[in-house]
Each structure stands twice: as structure tokens, then as C-alpha cells.
Design a protein that fits this description.
Layout lengths: L5 H96 L23 E4 L1 H6 L3 H10 L3 H8 L4 E6 L3 E6 L13 H4 L8 H7 L5 E2 L3 E2 L5 E11 L2 E10 L1 H4 L10 E5 L5 E4 L3 H4 L6 H18 L4 E7 L2 E10 L4 E8 H4 L1 H53 L3 H13 L14 H47 L10 E8 L7 E8 L3 E9 L4 H23 L4 H14 L7 E9 L4 E7 L5 E4 L2 E4 L20 E4 L5 E5 L1 H4 L10 H12 L5 H17 L11 E8 L8 E6 L5 H12 L6 H22 L6 E9 L4 E8 L26 H9 L2 E7 L2 E9 L2
Antiparallel strand pairs: 1-3, 2-3, 2-7, 4-6, 5-6, 6-7, 8-9, 8-12, 10-11, 11-12, 13-22, 14-15, 15-16, 16-17, 17-20, 18-19, 18-21, 21-22, 23-24, 24-25, 25-27, 26-27
Length: 857
């Protein structure tokens, strides 16, 4: 038997102990790393399913709410068109009543008779009923027809919007203006079958007009010309009472023009009795050939929906056509007692849900890819460290065995191993004396150190995991903020956010809608951390969606914010709230419409002046009250003006003396910077000033809140050429004025209706100047105008040196009061106010300056 020396035995023992130590240490660690990999993979699949299902369901709820809102918006728009028709009929009635009750102010006019000669389409004429022909035309009736004929100018202006306009007198004559789509067709009552038989007093619309004192709509019916129409009628009056009925005929498809503007939307209209009035639905909607269960389900659904529509309710219902899923939404048209139904493809409704699901899957895949890379790096580092430690231990064993072979050497070798961090190393001394006790004490000490080392390693691992998750969350949050816009000639914009922690609760957003409207938003969530960041992302997304839809649907910014608040409040289980400032800027005009929901008031730098936008004290923060309403305010920024939006992380930053940076310091700094500093320069200067304030005497405090800023400088687009004309202040110069107005339209796509309305307004204002402004008939009037923007908008200024007169101080007439009790005057300027978007007056340099603005769409 070979006997080994103490040195060799010590070397062999320590090598075997080291190998076993690595085996026992490495096995649990490798098993734990494998378990971590398996757990993350399994959790990734479950989390992906949960998150994508939630995002899809959330988007589906939004889509289903939107289809009801679309039906209500479409029906409201149809209601607005009904109000326009009523206003036109009321205008005709008022003008004709004025003519009959003041006959001495009008000269008789001659109109062609339907029985005398052919009358071209679009020309007014008079028709006598058979009863009136039989009784004979008295001079008094003939005189009345001549006086009533003074209404034809208004009939011709309004005639382009309607199939026909008619005035049926109680004496039996009728004034007609046909506007058929067939160009050059002969007027209706000139035709043989109606020329000798037509009597307006026997028509249903005439009887309806006698039963009301305000404009009223008929149901859709077959007219005497054969087409389906509906009418709006009301009486007109002379000094004895009702003199007759005036009315207009409209085609249903023209009335509901929204359904034929290229939208992929199918609609149908029913009246109070459930009668179908208008239908653009697919053929299979009402008639399904096969008699399967889907058809039976559709029949029941149609019956249910029809009943709710006739009761004036709104909502939506799921249906199937040829096995494909659709949503039928419906809403009442209150002005006509009709109801509108709208059919939307399920794929179109659920498009947003599919997009949201895809985006969440991509985000989870990106997170998993980042984890795999991090895990691989940790494994490589572990293998490298294991090899390094093993090499060090082998070297130490060889060195200890070579130098020390007695018990004390063993103790020293063990102490060195402990110093190197190998707490699993045990010292074996079998001497039976104090050295053996000392070795035992060393072994006890290494056990305690090993336990302490494991605790430290566990805490370090947890800290590393948390830091990795926060880093990923910070990256995701940064990606949600908007990318810089392309360089703009009309404005400069910059924004920045410095979170107090790895992730914050502030956000900002900006985006263009079309070429002429810019939306800016800035917000501050009530809390911090990952939950607040998630709420921030939801608030930013919901606000952008509703504001974009509101602009496209001609809804107000306040309505968009209110709808966003309702959605956020409904899903706000954590009881967060967010302060928001949202603004919609017309780049061409500088008009800023904004809603401030509890946020810091933006600061304006304009013409070397500094001021804050007016507060909106009634607006509350978002996420608190689901049914809250909001008010919006309009302001106009001059070219060169700068608006500075910020969160309270700027003004509430404190120094070591607990002094806030404050709004006063911010305003003083902005006043020094002025309008000539770029938006990016303003942000950098403010952030540097806040940092210096927090640093104080060198003992810097930790940032307590997110610092977020958005700065916009409106460079302006006031380069539109302004044209003017100087004419004598005489009524006969109106033709030259109209030619000047038409020249302004020549290079822009303006609607004919807007043009006609503007010409009426121009006529009213110019005639008032010509007849009342001057005593000297040789005086002149100056008209300045320019057309700008997209969509086009016109601005006209009427300047005269006549007597001071502000027409806007004139009280609007009460149209519900009888004409005998109504004061004279005021109707013209009332018409002007109704037909323009903005009107202002000023007296400057002894001149009256009346300025109007109107969108030409």
C-alpha cells in the first residue's frame, strides 16, 4: 500500500473538496436558471393572451359605442338640414307677409301665366285654379298678384336648393317656381293634365299649412310630377289674417345628402308609422331568399329595431346577411319625426380591435426578445466567472499544499479560501486538540457567511430584475411620445419630458389635421410609476382619437374632451385623474380653440407682452366624473406669438430651502427670452434655470416631479394679398361690388350656396351704407377683401366715413312675435349675423369699419 505524504494528502483532499463544492453549488444554480427560463416562456404566452384579449375587447367596446354615435351624428346632421329648410320657409313667409301688409311700398310686377305660353324650367310664373277662372279675375286680385310677385327674387335665390317653391293663395291663384333636374324641361303646371285642373287649396300640403303657424313637414308622398318628395309648408298673412300657404318641395335623397358622399355606409329612413322612406341598403337586407335560421333571426331583429325606431329610440343591433355579421345602428331625426338606420360591416367596426391586438402582440414579442438577450448575457458571464473562480481555487490549493502541511497551515489555507469568497470550503483537522476546535469554529463561521452571501445575492438579483423592467417600461413610454414634425413654414414647435423616476405620468402630443389645423395637448397624471404611465398612455390615445374624429365630424373640441373623459372615467379602477390642456390652432388665421381641464394655464408671449390664457374654472380634471361637461374658449394668436405649455413639475420644483421655482420666476425668465428665442431654446433655458434653482447652494435635491414642456411659435401666414375697391356710395354701384366679390372666388373652390349667401350679405351691408351712412350723395365706400386658408375662408371689410353707427348694437328681432307687435328694422343685420361666421365693428379715424369672416364651404 502506497502511503501518501501529508502534503499530497492535503492536496488531494482539497482538490476533491473543491470539485464537490462546485458540483453542489453549480447544480442548483443551473437548475434555477433553467426554471427561470421555463417560467418566463410560460408566463410570456399567458400574458400575451391576456393583454391581447383585453386590448381587443377594449377596442371592440370603443367601436360599438362609435357606431351608435355615428348614427346619432348622421341623424343630427339631417336634423340641421331640416332646420335650414324651416328657416328658408320662415324667411319666405316673413317677406311675403311684409309685402302684403305694406302694399303701398311695392309696385305691381307681371309674371307669365301657365295657361298663356310655355315657361322654361327655373322661371317663376302664376297659375289660376279652375274655380278662379270660372269666377273671373277681379282687379283687386290682379292687383294682389302683382304685389305678391315682388317675392320672386327670393324664390329664385332659394329655388336652386329645392325641387319647387310655391305660394298658394286662398283666392285660388298659385305662384310656382320649378327646379327639375332635367335641364330645359317645361314647367309643371304648363302641362295639359294640370294646367286646367290644378287647385292648390285641394292639396294635402295646403291643408297641413292651415293647421299650423310654424314651418311643418309632410311625410314623403308622390307629387303631381310622379317623383317621391316631402314638403315644408306654413301660412303667410295679410292684414286680415291667413292669406295663403307657402311651401317648398324636397327630394329625400337630396335632404339626406350625407349618405351619398362616397362613404361606405348603407342607410334607410322610416316615418313614425314604420313606412320606408329612403333605402340604400343591400338587396338582401330586407329580402333573403333562403329560409334558414339566420333569415328568421333577421326578421325578428328587423321587427324589434323597427319598433324602437318608431318610438324615437337610438341604439344598435347585430344582424347577419348571407352568413356575414353586420351592425345596424339607429337614431331619431327629431325635427321630422323620422328615424334613420345605418348598416356597418363587422370587419369595418372591428378594424381598430384587430390593429390594437396586433400592436400588443408586437410589444410582447419585443419584450421577450430583449429578455432572451439579457438571459444569454447572464449565462455567458456566469460561465466565465465559474471558470475564473475554479482556476483561482486550483491555484490556491496547489499553493497551500506546497507551503503548509500542518494543521495550522490548513487553518490558514481555509481562512484564505474564505477571504476569496468560497464559503463552502470546510477545514478538516483531526488532531483532537485546540486546532481541531479552531477548525470547527472556522467552519461555523463559513456557514454563517454563506447564508449572508446568499441573502446579498438574492437582493442583488431582485434589484437587477426591477431595474430591467423599469428600463423596458421607460423605452415603451418614450416610444409613445410623438416624433418631431417635418419643418413647417408657418410655425416652430418643440417639446420635452424629463421624468422624476424611470417612468413618469406626464405626456404631450401634437399632430396636424389636414394642412391647416394643428392639435397640441399636454397632461399630468395624478400619480407616478408604472400604473400612472399606463393611465397616461390611455389618456393620450383616447384624447387623440376623439379630437381627430371631432374635427372630421365638425364637432366641438369641448365635446371631444367630454367623450374622452367619459371613456377614461368608465375604465378608471385605480381612481387616477389627469389634468389636460388641449388646443386646436388654425394655422392660417391664428385662431386657437382650447379646453383646459384643471391644467396649468399656458403663457403667451406676444408683441413683447406676456400673459396667461383665461382660466376655465368650470372644467374639472379628466377621470373623476363620467358625465362631466366642458366649455371651450377661443383666442387669436398674432403672427410671431409664442405659447408655452408646461406641467407643475416646472413651477413646483423646490431648492434646499424649500422654495418653489414658481410661476413668477417662469414669467420673468420668459420675458427675458422674448419672442425671438426658438421653442427649443426656450425649453433648454427653462430646464437649465429649474436645475440651477434645485441645486441651490450645491446640495442638490432629488427631482420630485416630472418636468414637461411644449412650446409653439406661430410664424404666421399673413402673406395673402388683400384686394380693395372704391366705389360711390350709391345703390346702382352694387353690380360693381358683386363683380369684385366674384373675382375673389375665381381661384378657390367655394360652394355655390356659400357664394349666394355671401352676396346676400354684401348686398344688405352695401345698400345700408348707400342709403343711410351719408347725407352727401357724392361720398364713397371702400371694400377690402382677401380669401385664404384650406378650406377657403373670406374676410371682407366695409369702410365708410359716414355718421357713426354700430349695427351690432341692434337687438335681434323676435321672429315669434306677430308682425304688428314687432318693431320696424333689424331683420337685415339679423340675416347678416346668421349667414356669416364672425362679424366685428370698430370706429377708427372717423370711419365706420365693419368686418365679416365666412367659411366658403
Amino acid at each position: 500500500m502506497i502511503k501518501l505524504s501529508i502534503k499530497r494528502r492535503l492536496l488531494l483532499l482539497m482538490v476533491l473538496g473543491s470539485v464537490l463544492s462546485f458540483v453542489f453549488l453549480g447544480s442548483p444554480l443551473l437548475y434555477g436558471m433553467y426554471g427561470l427560463w421555463d417560467t418566463i416562456s410560460e408566463t410570456r404566452e399567458k400574458l400575451t393572451v391576456v393583454v391581447t384579449d383585453y386590448s381587443r375587447d377594449f377596442a371592440r367596446e370603443q367601436a360599438q359605442e362609435r357606431i351608435v354615435n355615428e348614427a346619432e351624428i348622421l341623424s343630427q346632421t339631417a336634423g340641421d338640414e331640416a332646420n335650414n329648410i324651416k328657416a328658408d320657409v320662415q324667411l319666405l313667409s316673413d317677406e311675403l307677409t311684409e309685402i302684403l301688409q305694406n302694399r303701398q311700398n311695392y309696385s305691381p310686377r307681371m309674371l307669365p301665366r301657365a295657361s298663356d305660353r310655355d315657361i322654361a324650367n327655373g322661371k317663376p310664373y302664376v297659375h289660376y285654379s279652375p274655380a278662379l277662372e270660372a269666377e273671373g279675375i277681379t282687379p283687386a286680385i290682379e292687383q294682389e298678384i302683382g304685389i305678391v310677385s315682388n317675392i320672386v327674387e327670393t324664390m329664385e335665390i332659394l329655388g336652386q336648393y329645392y325641387v319647387r317653391i310655391y305660394i298658394g293663395s286662398q283666392h285660388g291663384y298659385t305662384l310656382f317656381l320649378d327646379n327639375w333636374e332635367e335641364s330645359g324641361d317645361m314647367s309643371l303646371l304648363r302641362r295639359e293634365q294640370w294646367r286646367t285642373t290644378y287647385d292648390a287649396r285641394k292639396r294635402d300640403w295646403y291643408r297641413l299649412g292651415l293647421s299650423t303657424s310654424a314651418p311643418a313637414f309632410t311625410d314623403v308622398y308622390n307629387s303631381i310630377s310622379g317623383e317621391k318628395i316631402f314638403s315644408c309648408v306654413m301660412p303667410y298673412y295679410d292684414n286680415q289674417g291667413v292669406a295663403g300657404i307657402i311651401g317648398v318641395d324636397c327630394l329625400p335623397k337630396n335632404f339626406f345628402w350625407q349618405a351619398e358622399r362616397g362613404k361606405n355606409i348603407d342607410i334607410f329612413i322610416i316615418n313614425k308609422k314604420g313606412k320606408l322612406l329612403l333605402n340604400t341598403m343591400p338587396e338582401d337586407f330586407f329580402y333573403i331568399a333562403n329560409g334558414d335560421d339566420l333569415r328568421k333571426s333577421n326578421v325578428a331583429s328587423l321587427a324589434y329595431v323597427s319598433k324602437r325606431m318608431t318610438q324615437g329610440n337610438s341604439g344598435y343591433h347585430k344582424m347577419y346577411i348571407n352568413g356575414k355579421e353586420y351592425y345596424l345602428s339607429y337614431a331619431p331625426i327629431k325635427e321630422t319625426n323620422w328615424s334613420m338606420g345605418m348598416l356597418l360591416d363587422n370587419d369595418q367596426v372591428m378594424q381598430d380591435a384587430a390593429v390594437a391586438q396586433k400592436q400588443m402582440i408586437e410589444l410582447m414579442d419585443n419584450f421577450y426578445t430583449a429578455f432572451i438577450r439579457l438571459f444569454g448575457l447572464i449565462v455567458l458571464l456566469f460561465v466565465f466567472a465559474l471558470l475564473l473562480v475554479f482556476s483561482i481555487i486550483i491555484y490556491g490549493i496547489n499553493w497551500a499544499a506546497d507551503r503548509f502541511y500542518k494543521p495550522i497551515r490548513s487553518l490558514m489555507s481555509g481562512a484564505k479560501e474564505i477571504a476569496q469568497g468560497n464559503f463552502r470550503h470546510k477545514i478538516s483537522v483531526q488532531t483532537g486538540d485546540e486546532w481541531e476546535n479552531l477548525a470547527a469554529n472556522f467552519n461555523t463561521m463559513t456557514d454563517e457567511l454563506e447564508q449572508y452571501s446568499r441573502e446579498i445575492a438574492f437582493r442583488a438579483k431582485e434589484k437587477s430584475r426591477i431595474e430591467a423592467e423599469l428600463s423596458v417600461a421607460n423605452h415603451i413610454q418614450s416610444s409613445l411620445l410623438p416624433a418631431p414634425l417635418e419643418t413647417q413654414s408657418a410655425f416652430q414647435l418643440a417639446a420635452d419630458m424629463k421624468p422624476a423616476r424611470e417612468i413618469g405620468g406626464d405626456f404631450y402630443d401634437y399632430y396636424l389635421i389636414g394642412n391647416n389645423q394643428l392639435v397640441i395637448t399636454i397632461g399630468d397624471v395624478s400619480e407616478k410609476g408604472i400604473p400612472a404611465a399606463l393611465f397616461m398612455a390611455a389618456a393620450k390615445t383616447v384624447l387623440k382619437n376623439y379630437i381627430s374624429v371631432a374635427v372630421q365630424k365638425n364637432m366641438s373640441l369641448a365635446q371631444a374632451v367630454a367623450m374622452a373623459n367619459s371613456q377614461l372615467t368608465a375604465a378608471n379602477r385605480e381612481c387616477f385623474f389627469v389634468t389636460v390642456f388641449a388646443g386646436l390652432l388654425n394655422i392660417s388665421t391664428g385662431e386657437l380653440i382650447y379646453v383646459n381641464a384643471g391644467h396649468n394655464q399656458p403663457i403667451i408671449l406676444e408683441d413683447n407682452h406676456i400673459f396667461s390664457l383665461p382660466r376655465q374654472s368650470k372644467n374639472i380634471v379628466l377621470g373623476v366624473m363620467e358625465e362631466a361637461s366642458y366649455e371651450e374658449t377661443a383666442a387669436r394668436l398674432k403672427p410671431g406669438a409664442t405659447i408655452v405649455c408646461y406641467t407643475d413639475g416646472v413651477t413646483d420644483a423646490v431648492n434646499p430651502s424649500k422654495e418653489k421655482f414658481s410661476i413668477k420666476r417662469l414669467e420673468e425668465l420668459l420675458g427675458k427670452l422674448g419672442n425671438n428665442t426658438s421653442p427649443q431654446g426656450i425649453i433648454e433655458a427653462v430646464e437649465q434655470a429649474v436645475l440651477q434653482h434645485v441645486t441651490g447652494n450645491g446640495t442638490a435635491l432629488e427631482q420630485s416631479d416630472d418636468i414637461t414642456m411644449l412650446v409653439l411659435n406661430l410664424l404666421g401666414s399673413d402673406d395673402v394679398e388683400e384686394k380693395k375697391i372704391i366705389v360711390p356710395a350709391q345703390v346702382n354701384e352694387l353690380l360693381r361690388v358683386n363683380e369684385f366679390i366674384n373675382e375673389l372666388f375665381s381661384e378657390a373652390l367655394c360652394s355655390e350656396r356659400a357664394k349666394n349667401q355671401l352676396l346676400l350679405v354684401v348686398e344688405e351691408i352695401f345698400v345700408n351704407i348707400a342709403e343711410y351712412a351719408y347725407k352727401d350723395k357724392n361720398a364713397v365706400a371702400v371694400i377690402k377683401g382677401k380669401l385664404f386658408g384650406d378650406p377657403p375662408e373670406i374676410q371682407l371689410s366695409f369702410i365708410d366715413e359716414g355718421i357713426p353707427y354700430n349695427p351690432l348694437e341692434k337687438t335681434d328681432p323676435n321672429l315669434d312675435v306677430d308682425l304688428d307687435d314687432r318693431p320696424i328694422g333689424g331683420l337685415g343685420i339679423f340675416l347678416v349675423k346668421k349667414k356669416v361666421d364672425d362679424i366685428t365693428y370698430e370706429r377708427k379715424d372717423n370711419k365706420n369699419i365693419l368686418t365679416i369672416r365666412k367659411k366658403m364651404i
